[in-house]
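Supplementary Methods, section 5.1.

A reviewer requested that the exact input to the structure prediction be made available. We therefore reproduce it here, unchanged from the version used in the analyses.
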Amino acid sequence: MPWQVFWIIVQIITIVQGCLKCSNDAMAIKQDFRNRFLAKKLRKEPDQKKKLQRLLDNVVDGLSHTRINPKKYMAVIDELTLGRIAAHFKRFVNRITENDFQDGQLFNEVTWGLQKLVATFEEIMPQFTKLICSNECGKLIYSFINCYSCQTNTYTCIKGIYCGERRIQVDMDEDLILDCALRWHKVYHGVKQYRFFRVVNGKQQLMASGTDSFLVKKEVNHNDTGRYRCEMLDPNGEPASRLDFQVTVLTPVGKTTWFTRPHLTPMEGPFALGVSSREPPPQEDWTAWIVIAVTGGLLSLVVVAFVCYYRHKNKKDEKEQEEEEEKENEEKGENEEKGENEEEGEIEESESES
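The structure derived from this sequence is encoded token-by-token as follows.
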């Protein structure tokens, strides 16, 4: 049995504390919930208050005794997992304090919430333990928090620097992407640096270096066929993993090479390398003419629509004017005819009187 495992088991047996205690925020929330909220809410029921306070203490302090599985204890935790547990505990407390639970309902809600906390802890911890020495190759440095002393310790798991070779085929004039990231790199403690090399006759020619885990080489040609290498460096600048790439550039059927690509010299800097030297001759840009044509067409449509509307309106006005004139003429004729009839009637009357 490794001495680290023996030391962990001894601490679990002899000390009663929990990983959640290493979160200052979680402990502040716990104390406020225990000593203020429960004390005020259950001041008339001291027995139930003591029972809930004791249950809260036992669950939080007993998380360190929770087995990941029947053969594994838990005595360490990483910062990310501790933050997830603390966030769950905070949501549980907020749910209780924001709702006006009374008497037996309050007791049931607190009990259920603490059971859920333990279940969440048991669910998350196996995911965390998979990260321990999860590197298939290379040198993994990871940082853990001791659940009892709350001190942060750094551990190293070494399984050889070389992580194999990947074969990549890429069509000519396409972009070559070299991805140096391995699954265990995301849990690596400290700042990671990456270096990319072109290997020619056994010698490494530096292409780029930085914090990005991938390299993009623009529009490759047959001269880019060959071996490449990437290294991930630890905080001390020493290689923590090494990955080789055997790249083959293929000639697509039906494609034409316009002119040769100049040789790229090794460089440091951004991981997007090379400006295209294989682009076809420039073509005319018809964008401006298209815009002009579309704009002119729209203006013509507007003018034609306006003219048609204007003519239609004039014809309508003329027609209405003619109708009004005809109506006036008819009224005038009717008045004249009425006047003549009246005159004739007057003449007849005067003749009869005489």
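The radius of gyration is 44 Å. These observations are discussed further in the main text.
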